[in-house]
Amino acid sequence: MWDTGEALALAVGVFDGVHVGHHHVLELLLEAADTRGLKPAVLTFDPHPLSLIAPDLAPRMLTTIDQRIEQFDALGVELTAVLGFDASVRAMSAEAFIEDILVGRLRAEFVVAGQDFRFGADRSGDLDLLAEMGSGLGFQAVSSPLIGGREPVSSTRIREALDGGDVSAASALLGRNYQLVGAVVPGVGRGSDFGFATANVDVDATLSIPGRGVYAVRAGVGELVPAVANIGVRPTFGAGAETVEVHLIDRYVEIIGDAIRIEFVARLRDEQTFVGISELVDQIGRDIEAARAIFS
Question: What is the pTM of this model?
Answer without folding.
Answer: 0.92
